[in-house]
Amino acid sequence: MGEIADKAKGTANKVAGAAKSAAGKATDNEKLRREGEAQKAKGNAQNAKGEIKGKMGNKV
Q: What domain of life does the UniProt record list for this protein's source (predicted)?
């Protein structure tokens, strides 16, 4: 996957994770809140991977 694809997937995971986390907080559902936090972390990692690929010319 290239830089842009990694960043796009990362952003999508961060947005979905934030929505899950907020829904979990609003409904007092700790499991859903934790799932959302984990998905946001996955998104952050994907964005970082995309940044590295951009700096290295997609050689990663």
A: Bacteria
